[in-house]
TrEMBL record:
Family under the similarity heading: Belongs to the purine/pyrimidine phosphoribosyltransferase family.
Principal localisation: cytoplasm
Annotated Phosphoribosyltransferase domain residues: 13-164
Catalytic activity, reaction form: GMP + diphosphate = guanine + 5-phospho-alpha-D-ribose 1-diphosphate; IMP + diphosphate = hypoxanthine + 5-phospho-alpha-D-ribose 1-diphosphate
Entry keyword annotation includes Zinc-finger: no
EC identifiers of the protein: 2.4.2.8
Phylogenetic lineage: Bacteria, Bacillati, Actinomycetota, Actinomycetes, Micrococcales
Cofactor: Mg(2+)
One GO location term (cellular component): cytosol
Name of the protein this chain belongs to: Hypoxanthine phosphoribosyltransferase
Organism: Luteimicrobium subarcticum
């Protein structure tokens, strides 16, 4: 098989590039309205949120700052370990800031619930979450999310920043993998 032919690895396309873009237009309009005349710091969670951060931020009419955190709970597998590690911390002091965490996906919720309480302890004015995807049926902890792109079924998905063993992040859409990919 041609290892560069990614379509052979996919079972289904769940959300097309166009669907993602249209939803981002709506989310950006809501965020612009909600934070009108207010300071806003976008915090992207590496690596998965790179695509949504770039596409959401450029749709905002707001003057924002952008910073990044790297945390990892999935390693190379398809299940959250539940143990969140900070691989890279923010450069920004959060005291008095309006923080909007930008994520690609909320699955078990473990990463975000840990991150929200971590950031809240740093004295911000507010902490809210924007996520492109959420799996409601997979939630192990409830996380209060202000902006959700799409609720999706509890299947492992890739693309638009989301990886399986570090691959498929560059797909412009969200899809599911064919079983042979997990088989190795
Ligand atoms: O709700 P949860 O079950 O905690 O899962 C969500 C988290 O898992 C993924 O990150 P991952 O640890 O795979 O790091 P990555 O973004 O570098 O791929 C994803 O980007 C979220 O941060
Ligand atoms: O479905 C998923 N795909 C990729 N990474 C993830 N991290 C949490 N859930 C997922
Ligand atoms: Mg990952």
């Amino acid at each position: 098989m041609d290892r560069s032919d990614v379509s052979a690895d996919l079972a289904d396309i769940l959300l097309t590039e166009q669907q993602l873009g249209e939803r981002l237009d709506q989310m950006a309009a809501e965020i612009d309205a909600d934070y009108r005349d207010q300071d806003l710091l976008l915090v992207g969670v590496l690596k998965g949120a790179v695509m949504v951060m770039a596409d959401l931020a450029r749709r905002l009419h707001h003057t924002v700052e952008m910073d990044w955190m790297a945390v990892s709970s999935y390693g190379s597998g398809t299940k959250s370990s539940g143990v969140v590690r900070i691989l890279k911390d923010l450069d920004t002091d959060l005291t008095g800031r309006n923080v909007l965490i930008v994520e690609d996906i909320i699955d078990s919720g473990l990463t975000l619930s840990w991150l929200v309480s971590n950031l809240r302890s740093r004295g911000p004015r507010s902490v809210e979450i924007a996520t492109m995807l959420r799996k409601p049926a997979a939630a192990k902890v409830e996380v209060d999310v202000r902006y959700v792109g799409f609720d999706i079924p509890s299947e492992f998905v890739v693309g638009y920043g989301l990886d399986y063993a570090e691959k498929y992040r560059n797909l412009p859409f969200v899809g599911t993998l064919a079983p042979h990919v997990y088989g190795g």
